[in-house]
Design goal:
It is a single chain. With 434 residues, the chain is mainly β. Helix content is 4%, strand content 53%.
Length: 434
């Protein structure tokens, strides 16, 4: 093994299917449930179906018998790079297309179960994902020397318990077991006329573990408060640097620097987060919901993978700084009739990338969420819901420079923007009581 090189990888953790990056770092509140229609308002206080096993395990004490919720969703993205005039001509004019998801679209899903062990003791299990990114720009796009593909597919398995302390207070907790699969590819500039680009690929599979805690407090007969904390989860991906298509000169230089066969430690951290929420039933028809959250993205430590100067390669990674984020949401529920409930909400997540620009590795930052949805109670044991949401991220600028142009072995200057970025989410779910 060559020298160990530290970096952090772009990643996602998802549930039954992939879920690409959203705002507020890479954390999503959308995983095939009613949270889509509420834009996450009341996230840790709602406790109206089996998804509370994931959002706040303490809420399971409100649910009778055994309940199961299964949901699916489809996300579509307007995230396409617009090449600016200051981009190095040698990088070409390929904008990478709709890079997020698979051709701009991504399915997702989640499954949740709660059951009664004793009158005041509940058990739950969740398979869900709310963290990450899936990118595929293609091999020949203008930013290929910074990233071509970057994805980590994973699954969160969360067993949880809840206990009703008294008529007002319930507490809960769970273990968050995350299985991740990393695959990241970057083009390498051979800087020789007539010789195509080489490529660097990193891939690995690993487990990470963390914990979730929650409490639910019934302040009045109509109002309850929820508070949850999720610990940091470390996904310690480790991969050899797998080069292909390198020219003989570059191979010799990399070998002399100990980089050709280097092992790369990809120490990615899913950040800890705190969420406080409120649910208040105003009257027979109206309920108001709200949430405030914090996520510790300053610990994430993301890095670009690639070689900045093939004539003098000193590292395979470039660090990217991040900052902690805040989340605020407000929403309401309106009882249209006995079987139908209308959900709607709005939320804002602050920026997690520092400065005024973003990396093409992470074409997301601050964003607004606007959601609406409806639920129908088919009978006393079955209800279903449908929800839609728009996540608007505005225009994101890119301004990355390199000491050398592509013709001389550099990555070149990549300047441009992602204009009017947005994601569109459609979710359908059902909840059964047994």
């Amino acid at each position: 093994m060559g020298p160990r090189l530290r970096a952090s990888a772009v990643a996602l953790v998802l549930g039954a299917a992939a879920a690409p990056a959203g705002a507020a770092g890479l954390l999503l509140y959308e995983f095939g449930t009613g949270e889509v229609g509420l834009a996450s308002a009341g996230y840790s206080a709602r406790a109206q179906d089996a998804s509370t096993a994931f959002t706040n395990p303490a809420g399971m004490t409100r649910l009778p018998g055994t309940q199961v919720l299964a949901g699916g969703q489809l996300m579509a993205f307007n995230t396409q790079f617009s090449i600016g005039g200051d981009t190095s001509p040698g990088l070409g004019s390929n904008d990478g297309g709709h890079a997020l998801g698979f051709g701009g679209v991504m399915p997702g899903a989640g499954a949740f179960m709660t059951t009664t062990i004793a009158p005041d003791l509940k058990f739950g299990f969740s398979i869900a994902g709310n963290f990450g990114s899936v990118l595929d720009y293609g091999d020949g796009w203008a930013g290929r020397y910074r990233v071509q593909q970057a994805k980590v597919l994973g699954v969160q398995f969360v067993p949880s318990l809840a206990y009703r302390v008294n008529d007002r207070l319930s507490i809960g907790g769970g273990v968050n077991a995350v299985y991740g699969i990393l695959d990241q590819k970057t083009a390498i500039n051979n800087a020789l006329p007539g010789l195509a680009d080489g490529q660097l690929e990193l891939n690995d599979k690993t487990w990470g573990f963390g914990g979730n805690l929650g409490l639910l407090y019934q302040a009045t007969p109509a109002t309850r408060l929820g508070l949850t904390w999720a610990s940091q989860v470390d996904l310690d991906f480790k991969s050899p640097a797998r080069f292909s298509g390198l020219g003989p000169g570059l191979s010799a230089v990399l070998a002399s620097r100990g980089l050709l066969d280097a092992g790369v430690n990809l120490g990615m951290k899913i950040p800890q987060q705190v969420m406080a929420s409120v649910f208040s039933q105003v009257d027979e028809r109206w309920a108001l919901l709200g949430s405030v959250g914090w996520q510790q993205w300053s610990k994430f430590g993301e890095a670009e993978v690639g070689i900045d100067n093939v004539n003098d390669p000193v590292s395979l990674t470039t660090s990217l700084p991040f900052r902690d984020t805040w989340h605020v949401a407000a929403g309401a529920q309106y009882r249209i009739s006995d079987p139908w409930l209308l959900n709607f909400g709005v939320a804002y997540d602050s920026a997690f990338q520092k400065g005024d620009t973003v990396s093409p590795l992470l074409p997301v930052n601050a964003a607004w969420r606007f959601g609406v949805g409806g639920e129908q109670q088919l009978d006393k044991n079955v209800k279903w819901g449908i929800a839609g949401e728009v996540i608007y991220g505005g225009t994101l600028d890119v301004n990355l420079t390199s000491p050398l142009p592509p013709a001389l072995g550099g990555r070149g200057n990549l300047v441009g923007s992602y204009d009017n970025t947005a994601s569109f989410v459609l979710s359908v779910y059902g909840n059964w009581t047994f």
